[in-house]
Each structure stands twice: as C-alpha cells, then as structure tokens.
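Issue 218. Parser rejects a valid record. Input:
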Amino acid sequence: MNVLAGYATIVGVVKTVLLYSAVVVAAVCVLDWAVRTRRINPFSRTSRFARNRVDPLLAPIERVIVRAGGAPASAPWWALAAVVIGGIVLITLLDFFRDILFQIIVVSQQPSEAPMLLASWVFSILSLALLVRVLSSWFPISPYSKWVRWSYVLTDWMIGPLRRVVPTIGMIDITPIVAWFLLSLVRRAFGIP
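Output the parser choked on:
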C-alpha cells in the first residue's frame, strides 16, 4: 500500500499545481480580456505586455473562435475554460489510474479475484463506449472518425439487435440507453463490481 500512498502524494501535488495554474491563467485571461475590450489603456505597458506575450499564446484559440463566427475578445474566456476542463479531465484520469493501480495490487495479493477484475474492466469499457457513442451523436462527428470509431466497434454487437426490437421515440433512438440498462442488469446479476 506504500505505492498507493506515494501515488496519492503525487496526485495531491498535481492538484495543487493545477489549482495555482488555473488561478494564474484566470488572472492573465482577465488582463487580456480587459486589454482586448479597451478597459485598460491600449498604450500602457500592461497592454503592450498582453499583446506581446499573451496574445501569441491565445492565437490558436482565437483562430478557432473567429472561424466559428465568434468574437476575438472572447478568446481569453475560452482559454480559461479549456484550462479548467483540461484540469478536470487530468484529475479524473489520475483518479482512474489510482483505482486501476489499487485493483492490480488487490489481484496480486488475491489471484482468485482476477477473473472478476477482468469482467469488471470489460463492463466498464463497454459502458464508456456507449457513453462516447451517445455523446458523439450529439455533435457533427462522423462515426468513422478515429476518435469515436472504437466506440461503435465495441457496441455494434449490442445496438444492432436492440434496434430491431426497441422502437424509436419520434426522432430519438433510445437503444443505447436500453443497452446501458441491460449491461447494468447483467453486471449486477453476476455480482461484478
């Protein structure tokens, strides 16, 4: 369990660094927004600093916003949102790896739990694939995109037969929800955590 304690220490440090980084990024984004909206004199040293140091960092985000029809002055807020969401995703991934590390340690001490652990991982991956499949259907993302294709490959064997049985509700296809429910029932029936 010393490995888990060390990992928890590292995660704590990463969370602290992410928090302070988000505060610094928020301050820089507020400054840049104030310069872009001319709330700060555009000829001051602060404005020159923002244009010379911060604007080049925000240029890729600004290009995406302008292509989508947005205002360039909103680039600092989108950058801040990206940093916050990226931090949340990183913390979630670190927690996920902590859980996997814990499961591996338990299985190394009790090898008889290995089949149950593998079954749990299979059900978790299938549930994640269903979630990715549903979320990707809400956006203009091709099912053949390299980012979501795996979710279709992993779940087509469940969704295909269910579509022949489960009717749609208007334009809404509820077969992924039914598949999620059936996966949960099977998981509970076999006592898989």
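Fixed in the parser; the record now loads. Residues 1-109 form one domain.
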